[in-house]
Amino acid sequence: LKDEYRRVGKSKHFQNFIYAKKSLVTFERELDLLLEFLDLNKMAFSKILKKFDKVTGSMMREDKLEELKETHAFLDGVVLSEMKDRVTSMIDEVNALKPTLPEGWEERKVYTIGCFDLFHRGHQNVLMSLREFGYFIVAGIHDDESYFQLKNKYTIDNLETRIKNVKPFVDQMFVIPSTKPDLYLKSMVSDQDIEMGSCCYARGDDMLNFPGRDWVESVMPVHFVPRTESCSSTLIRTIYHSDCKDLQAKAAFAKTRYDGKPVDEDGNVLKLSKVLSCPAAMHVKNS
């Protein structure tokens, strides 16, 4: 049975299914966010005009809202709603093509490990997709010190905040106070689960050679799911937490790679810089 789990997990059919469904479900959620954004803007226009009429004694609200419907037709959300309906239909088609899974597949425990700093919709999308591999999700999370040792930078969100952000999407969590997660993962996985093949490991495909992969792959199947494009903690960190205004502006309007990292015109990643590496800061220092 364990060999069958590995075979199915590595099959082209299953991998195509996972990547197609994850990509479509992620796109559907993005469309939902856009539709919510449109509704928020329509409400804002209406309330601002209502307040304006009240303060000035005018009665222009209804006329302006009609004018907006003509000049900003996209606000009605019809195009996005139709697109979402098509995506929903495609998800149904993909689900119909789901491969036959071995007995016990959906009863497995699914393990994953991450840092989950600046928790965003990319993290949410990956964690929700892990339900395709089993019913019980166990997530390991690096503490603040091991995060610093791994990435040579401090977290924006402390450990307690990161745990609170992740817990709604998983069933159980454990903390990893080391750059080497092997020992802590081994302590969470029972010999019985390994022997029965009732566990697996899954994560986003942005780090194929993740720490501890050799041991993990020796005792359980490893699965990867596609990350959410143009969405990353690095991008958020650069825009909102860089000490360099020039770098913040560049990141906010920069192109992004598949992994969501902001890049310059030559394709080089825009990294968080120390203050002295920022042109504006260097100007202040030199003056």
UniProtKB/TrEMBL annotation:
Its source organism is: Trieres chinensis (Marine centric diatom)
What's the superkingdom here?
A: Eukaryota
Residue intervals of the SPX domain = 1-66
Q: Does Glycosyltransferase show up as a keyword for this record?
A: no
Q: What name does UniProt use for this protein?
A: SPX domain-containing protein
What GO terms are given for molecular function?
Answer: nucleotidyltransferase activity
Q: Recite the UniProt keywords alphabetically.
A: Nucleotidyltransferase, Transferase
The UniProt transmembrane annotation reads: none
Entry keyword Transferase: yes
